[in-house]
Amino acid sequence: MDFLNAIVALLNFVVVPATVYGSQLALGALGVTLIYGILRFSNFAHGDTMAFGAMVTILVTWAMQAAGMSFGVLPTALLALPFGILGAIALVLLTDRVVYRFYRAQKAKPVILVIVSMGVMFIYNGLIRFIIGPNDQRFADGARFIISHRDFKEMTGLREGLAIKTTQGITVIVAVLCVLALFYFLNRTKTGKSMRAYSDNEDLALLSGINPERVVMVTWIIVAALATIAGTLYGLDKSYKPFVFLQLLLPVFAAAIVGGLGNPLGAIAGGFVIAFSEVLVTYAWKKVANYVLPEALAPDGLAQLLSTDYKFAVSFVILLIVLLFRPTGLFAGKSV
Amino acid sequence: MTDSLKNTALFAIVAGLIVMTGFTESWNTALFIVNMGLISAIMAIGVNLQWGFAGLFNVGVMGFVALGGLATVLVSMDPVPEAWSAGGLQVIGGLILGALIIVAAGVAVSRLPKGRMRSLAAAAILIGGFFLYRAVFDPAVAAIEAVDPAATGYLGGLGLPVLLAWPVGGLMAAGAAWLIGKTALGLRSDYLAIATLGIAEIIIYILKNEDWLTRGVKNVNGLPRPVPYEIDLQNSAQFVERASGWGVDPVTASTIYVKLGYSVLFTVVLALVLILAQLALKSPWGRMMRAIRDNEVAAEAMGKNVTARHLQVFILGSAICGIAGAMMTTLDGQLTPSSYQPLRFTFLVWVMVIVGGSGNNFGAVLGGFLIWFLWVQVEPYGLALMNLITAGMPEGSALKTHLIDSAAHMRLLTMGVVLLLVLRFSPRGLIPEK
Is domain A2-244 classified as CATH 1.25.40? Predict the structure, then answer.
C-alpha cells in the first residue's frame, strides 16, 4: 500500500505537472525550431508572440463570456482560440511584410535578424502592455477538475490523492493533436514537404521551383498558431501575465537547442527533458521517501534538491551540458 | 558637412534636449537624466566593446550590471557581527567546499581513463558532494537569516568606502565573464546569446533568493554615499546662506547639489573609460579585434588566437558593465534585486549601441544619452499625446481612461520602433564606425 501511495504522490506532484509543462514547452519550442529551420535565425520575439496570441484569445473569451456563451465543462477559451490564432497570424504576417522581408531580400546575416527580432520583441511587448496591461489576468472557466483530490481518495481508498485539472487534461490532448497535425503536414502534404526541402537545402529547393515567399508565409502561419496555442494553454493552466512569457523564452529556447535546433522531433523531446528535470530537481521528495524508505532512513528535511525559485536555472544547466557534450543537440539539428 | 561637425551637432542636439527638460520640467529631472545617461553611456561602451569591436552577441548585460550592484553592497555596507558569528565562516566554508567538489569532479574527468567508470566516478563525486555541500551550507544560511530578519538577516559587507565598490564591481563581473566565456565562447553566436541570457537570469535569481548575501526581495537600503546627504546640507548654515545668495530655496539647492556631485564622479569615470576604449580601438589590438570580427578564418590563418581574444574582449566589456552597475546602485542608494529586468537592462543597452553606432565609442555614448532621454521622456510625452487624442472623447468613457492609463507603456513600443527604424534606414547607427 505504501508503495502505491508513493507512486500516486509521484504522479500527482511530478508526472502530471511535468507532462503538462513539457507539452507547453514543446509547442513553444516547435515554433522556435521551425523559424530557425526555415528563416534561419533565433526569434527572440517568440515569447511575446505567444503572449500576443494568448491575449487576443483572452479578449475574445471575455467577449464571449459577456455575451453569455460557454463551452459547457470545457473552458470558453477553447472556443476563442481560433480567433486568437487568427490575430497572431495577422500580426506575424504583418511583421514579416514590414520588417523581416527587407532583411531576407538583402540576405542579411542571421545575427542581424536576431537583433531585428529584439526590436520586434520590444514592439510586441509594448503592444501587449498597451492593450491588456501588465497585470495578472484570469480567464479560465468550466469545470475545474477531471478528477479531484478527494474523489480519487474515495475511489481508491489510498491516503494520497491524485488531482488532474481540466486545463491539464486539455493541455496534453491539444498538444498531442497539434503535434500529430504538424507532423502529418510536414511529412505528407506537398507544402510541408517543400518546407522541409527548403530547410534542408535552400538553393536546391529554389532550383526545384519552390516559391520561397510561400514557404516563409506558411511557416509564419504555423508558428503563430503553435505560439498562440502554447501561450493560451500556459495561461489557462497557470495564469496569464505578459511578463512571464519573456521568462519562458529561456526554457523554450533551451528545449529547442537541447533537442537540436531546426529539428521538430527534437523540440518535443527537448521540451519534456527540460520540464521533467525542472520538476524533478525542485520537487520536495520527503513525501515519496517517507512511503518508500524504512522509517530509519526517512529524511529530516524536505529532501528538495533546489528551491523552486531556481527552476529556470535547471533548464539552463541542462542546456550547457548538452551544448558542451553534444553541440548539435540530442537529435541532430542544424549547426550553422 | 564634415563628420566631426555632424557629430558635434548630434551631441549638441541631445544636450539641448536635456537642457530643455531642465527649463520645461525641472532641473532635478534633467540632472537625473544626465546621471543615468552617463551610466548608460558606460554600459553602452562595454557592449560596444563586445559587439562593435569583436562581434560577440552578449545578451546578459543585466547579469553583469546586477553583479556590480552586489559589489556595492558587499564593499560598502557595515558587517553584521551577529550574523558572522552565527554562521559566516561556515557559509564561506560551504562555498569553498562546493568549489572544491566541482574541481574534484573536473580532476576525475581529466585523470581517469575514458569509459563508463569515469562518468560514474564524476557523477558520484558531484552527487555525493552536493549533499555534503548542502549539509554544511544550509544550517549556516538558516542561522544567518534568523539574525534580526527585519533589519539585517544577512552578512553585510566590509564597511569600506563606497567608491571602492566600482572597481570591485568590475572585477566581479570580469570573474563571472571569465567563467561564462570559458564555457560558451567556443559555441556559435546564437548559443552564446542564449547562454548569456540564461546566466543573467540565474544571477538575478541568486540575488533574489540568497537572503544571507543580499537580503533577497527585502532589499538592502541605505547604502553609503560618496556625496553628502541633502538633509545635512539643509542643516548647514553655510550652505543655506549660499543657496539664498543664488536665489534658490535650500531644499531644491541641496538636491541639485547632490546630483551634481554624482554627475562629476560619473563624468570622470566615463571620461576614463572612453579614453581607454578609444586608445584600444586605435591600437594594433583594436585593429586585430576588428580583423577577427570581419573574418575569423582569415585572422586565424594569420596566427591570431581567436578564442583567446574573444575571451579577453568579453571579460573587458563585461567588467565595464559591472562598473556601471555598481555606479547605478550607488546612485540609487539601495539594491533592489526585483528591479532587474532584461528589457530594461539588457535589451535597452543594445538599442543604445545599435542606434548610436556599433563599433564607434562616441556613437555608444551618444546612444546612451539619447535612448535614456527617450526612455524617461516618452512617458510624459505619451501622456500628453494621449490627452490630445482623447480630448474629443466624452469624459469618463472606458476607452479614454484605458488610453490614458496605458500611456506609461508607450516607452517599450517607442524603443522597438526606434531600433527597427535605425536598423532599416541607417544600419550603421547615428555615428557610424570609421
Answer: no
